[in-house]
Amino acid sequence: MAYIYKKGKKWAFRAYMGTDPITGKEIKKSKSGFLTQKDAKLAAALFERQFNDGEYIQPSKFIFDDLCKDWEKHYSQDAKESSLRARKIALKHIINEFGKTPVQKINKKAYQDVIDKLSNKFSTNYISSIHSSTNMVFEYAQSLNLIKETPTKGIKLPKKKKTVSDLENDNSINQKFLEKEELEEFLSVAKNEGLEGDLLAFTMLAYTGLRIGEMVALKWSDIDYEKQTLRVIKTYYNPTNNKLNYTLLTPKTEGSIRTITIDPLLIDLLRLHEQEQEVVKRENKPFYKDNDFIFATNEGYPKTIKHLSIRMQRLLKKTSIKKAVTPHSFRHTHTSLLIEANVHIKEIQERLGHSDINTTMDIYAHMTKNIKKEASNKFSNLMKDLSKNLID
């Protein structure tokens, strides 16, 4: 039972909170400044109810910046280096706003205002990344009983509205992948004017749908010529693009660990590349570091993603393709061609290594012109008799 007493002209309460396990002394909660005895009693009753129900949060001056540092140590125990780096980059924007603010003083309104402010500077996807990272930090604070509720809960993430003009000029869907004819043109240029390894690299991306990090990490031990399969069990990580400072990580998700069947064309290109690589190894034997990488430099190190991106841009300039595509566009290209070939969406999910079928469904929307035309033709055939009657 709390003790209610008068302190000067105002009222106060003192309540028992147990015993300190280290010192053995009683822990008490005191609060003063109440205008009436009744106010003090109500406040004391509220405190005791919260304390007994485990809902009471001890006041703390722990600031947001320190919370993020503490969370990073905790998160890094299980997270990949690449994931931690992405989270830290996203959190910088919130730290800039709340870095020195005590965690308990960051409320929902203040956080919503910051999200609204950042939405004017960054894309919807990036805002979502910032929010999800911040939410993880506040949930960590909640698990430590630093806060009762997370200020990130129930926040509305702004969505940028498109105007009619935006929709008329929006070619983003078509820009995400190459049409079959465009892919044929690009690979023909890679064959005739590409540099060492270009044809294999970009054919591999287009014919398998691998993430570029998965492809760069491939080793010869991942290829089974007899079964014509390719195994994905690692991914390449190198944020500095220094060929010596790379790391091999486990794939993005559990679903990303997979073995897929590959086209006979790729088998032929791989055999040819293996023979050419053996020549390079012999010629550069004194300084060749052989770690079994398929896409290796003349010194044996895996090629960087930046290196392959530069090679891709070089080839694009020699084509009639005007799209702002990237190496990841080949993954979308592979998906769209699988859809055009009427491959079941579950098979597409497994081949691409998506643990969540919703991810596959999102890409499923990126239809090729041929599919759209086919849909139109099917509708025309279905309505042929009715259409004929309308004209006659």
From TrEMBL:
* Residue span, Core-binding (CB) domain: 62-142
Recorded GO molecular functions are: DNA binding
Instruction: Using the record's annotation, list all stretches that form the Tyr recombinase domain.
Output: 173-377
Instruction: List the residue ranges forming a coiled coil, or say none.
Output: none
Q: Which Pfam families match?
A: Arm-DNA-bind_4, Phage_int_SAM_3, Phage_integrase
Report the InterPro entries cross-referenced here. AP2-like_int_N, CB, DNA_brk_join_enz, Integrase-like_cat_sf, Integrase_catalytic, Integrase_recombinase_N, Integrase_SAM-like_N, Tyrosine_recombinase_XerCD
Set out the biological process GO terms recorded for this chain's protein.
Answer: DNA integration; DNA recombination
Arranged from A to Z, the UniProt key words for this protein are: DNA integration, DNA recombination, DNA-binding
Q: Which family does it belong to?
A: Belongs to the 'phage' integrase family.
Entry protein name: Site-specific integrase
**Source organism per UniProt:** Cytobacillus kochii
